[in-house]
Design goal:
about 35% strand; alpha+beta; about 20% helix; 1 helix
């Protein structure tokens, strides 16, 4: 099952990666690690990656395409 979107969100301790078809979010100690993992999922599933700020707003939204480049921050 392909995800419609993948989200990097603040977690109680660190950051979490929310993917539609995973039961539980994946946990990461750093934002950088969560983004790297999220970008990998987005590329494989050809979907968008949403990166949220600590207050819940979307900081970066990037649709994955065939060129496999990371989103600009």
């Amino acid at each position: 099952m392909l995800a419609r979107s993948i989200r990097v969100v603040p977690a109680e301790c660190g950051w979490a990666l929310q993917v539609d078809h995973l039961r539980e979010p994946l946990r990461f100690a750093t934002l950088k690690a969560a983004i790297a993992a999220g970008w990998g999922y987005a590329q494989r599933e050809t979907t968008e990656l949403l990166i949220h700020t600590l207050d819940g707003h979307v900081r970066l939204r990037s649709a994955c395409s065939d060129d496999h480049q990371e989103p600009q921050r």
